[in-house]
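Cont'd.
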Amino acid sequence: MIPTHYEFNNPVKIISGSKAVDNLPFELEQLGVSRPLIITDQGVAGAGLLSIVKNACSDSNISIGAVYDQTPPDSSLSTVKQIAGLYRKTQCDSFVAVGGGSAIDTAKGVNLIISENSDDLSQFAGAQIIKTPAKPLIVIPTTSGTGSEVTMVAVISDTDRNLKMAFTSHHLLPNVAILDPRMTLTLPASMTAATGMDALSHAMEAFISLQKNPISDAFCLSAIKLIGKTLPLAVKNGKDPDIRLTMANAATMAGIAFSNAMVGVVHGLGHAAGAVCHIPHGVAMSIFLPFGLEYNIAKEEKRIGRMLLSLAGESIYLNIPENKRAAGTVKAVRALQKTLYEHCGLPYTLKQAGATRDKLDQIAQKTMDDGALGFNPEAVELDDALMLLNRAYE
Amino acid sequence: MHMILKKRIKKIVIKIVVICRGRALQSAAKSDPQVMGELRRWDKSLIILMQVLPKGPGMILSKQGRELRYLGSTQKQADLVINFKNIECAFPVMAGFMSAETGFAQNRMTVKGDIPLAMSLIRCINRILTFLFPGFISRRILKRVAPFTLKEQIIRLKILTLGIPFGH
């Protein structure tokens, strides 16, 4: 059924293909800029990926204004402020983010305060309150998971207050996302698995979210199908550029879906587990996904059952009676978890991920503050969050 | 003309709803353990504004110490601002046809400020909806409504007889 009212917005130009990064100078010129600030992290720089970007800009009219390669794993207000200073000092006119979620979200945060001519990012926290168009931003993801290259969301930590601030606005959407398999070829198997499960959780949660709509649904199902087929292959054979490019496309599709339909309890629990026990986001998504789906079966049984066709394929879907398909989807996610555990040791319980039982109360409490719960089909109260955490513990 | 009249009627309905909800929240903050629990986690002094763009109506709530005060609709600088994009976006949510969560999901509202505080406010609003509306309505718009205990029935009676008419 079509929702009585919905909005969908994805103006990001997507360039996908081998050597797609070489289009960077052309795209910057199309945007009318010539002096980008590159925002990246030490992992990307250390893996030699920055040289691919620099090479692409050589022999062109583009002059890289500065490179900031110290983005921390959790982008923070102070990092954003520091990079904004660098942007102003080096008189850059645009941004290129090269990295995972942290580098991309940091670039969005810096872009916001530069465009608003401010130094205080925290005053723009919230949803759809930014009114000034941003500077050009091109994103080159180096993981296939966050989908941040096509989302209108940035999450930045306020380290002084120990909380993560969410910024949502269509002005945060990048202008261009470049998906080039060279940028993910060196990603280790464990990170490939974790980020891939993050993408799967985006697609699956967006498909049952209160904000779901027919257009986001199409992206969800395509992403689930690609991830179901490709993620185990990407973990086993990460050097195959075709497999890497497929995963990059799947993560981008999942990103488009959740940017327009949002996520639910799996992300609520995952953000809290990350804040309290420092469990990496993708690992947390993998652990909570089957429990989150199970929890929502009472409200969204048909839709959860429908995802089985995309995830496991026609033969399995048709061999399972309709009233057991939702449970079949949960089983298929657990089978995928098992495969990933066998190949690269991706944890499937909180205990394996290093959490201790005494932290569960704290995680449950923090979960209740997460905006994602509002979009979850089933109500989530403190006792429910604690019950899910106990189930996911071991 | 017909459409303008409809819009005016909707505006009047929202004005009445805002007063009822504001006073109900003020009253529940003194008597309902769930709302009191949410309030304890808020900063000691803060102002919340919920308004319909571009020109109202709106609802100002102020936390002063342990109390929550409904301060009418006079515009103020607020720590948390929830804006309905227009009167048509606000009406289904304010008139009880739709929960605040569905309103957010349908992009009817924007939030300026702390998302955890907004989540807590929504829990408070959902709670007072269960006091204001009969069960068959609240069960239709909210994700979950637990049956009332005797104590909760008394709180509801207090909100309906003293809270809304007199602000107690």
